[in-house]
Amino acid sequence: MKLSMFDDFRLGVWARDDSIVDVTRVLPETARPSDRMSALIADWARVESEIRDASRSTGTPRSQVTFRAPQPRPSKILAAPVNHGPHREEMIAAGAFTDVPGTIEKYVAFLKAPSSIVGPDGSIEHPDPTRRIDYEAELGIVIGAPARQVSRENALSHVFGYLALIDVTMRGDEDRSYRKSFDTFTPLGPAIVTADEIPDPSVLELELRVNGRLRQKGRVADLIYDVAQLIEVYSRAMTLETGDIIASGTPDGVGPLTPGDEVSLEVSQVPPLTIPVTARDPLHQPSAPATQ
């Protein structure tokens, strides 16, 4: 199934004709809009059959709804640095590392602020015209059952679903988590595809376009740490909570974004994400000094 948040953070399931059926009624009334997807995932065993039945009906045409981020406030976003084989080779060739490997084997993970999430209804805000920001196409992995010290063999049983995710990055010398956590630097959506529809995520492919031109093309099969290994490694250090998101790592072809661009990410079997790039209001530009 494909699940989205739309309009005033109502819960929708995609019908067979790709219209959106409102199933907000299955959620507890106490769930805040930002917590609704996590509440749904936690209660999935009880509500799945009702939502599946609803997906067989006809809803509102997609053109008539406003898609929000399907998971607007996970407890954390974990991201895998330089976790794609061709991207690692690209960075080594560019002299980005003083040691090899300077990749996931060494750095393991970084955190992105949940407040950096934006949905298809928003835009990527370029925060500073003197700085470069880049796109990075990634597969987003949404955690279902909490995972703590799980084995690689059992890791995929803790995945609720998958979505398209763009890891936006400001280039510079500051800490990686800072440069990747600006507001709007984690676009995702428009839908989570449940894991039963993608039993083997390694078959997925990613294509990212800027203004219609292909910039990145890669395969999940080329990840250095695959999806199951990421969950295994991260769950050794911290409990992965229901609704948490892991960003898989990006293929080669990373490049800059400027205001006026439109970015589109297609992940096979997952609804595509398209979002514009805008300039942040100059009154709200960051004031911290930076080295280019």
UniProtKB/TrEMBL annotation:
Task: Name the Pfam families for this protein.
Answer: FAA_hydrolase
Question: Which domain of life does this protein belong to?
Answer: Bacteria
Against InterPro entries, the record matches this protein to:
Fumarylacetoacetase-like_C, Fumarylacetoacetase_C_sf
Q: Which UniProt keywords apply?
A: Hydrolase, Metal-binding
Q: Name one GO molecular function term.
A: metal ion binding
Q: Where is the Fumarylacetoacetase-like C-terminal domain?
A: 77-277
Q: What is this protein called?
A: Fumarylacetoacetate hydrolase family protein
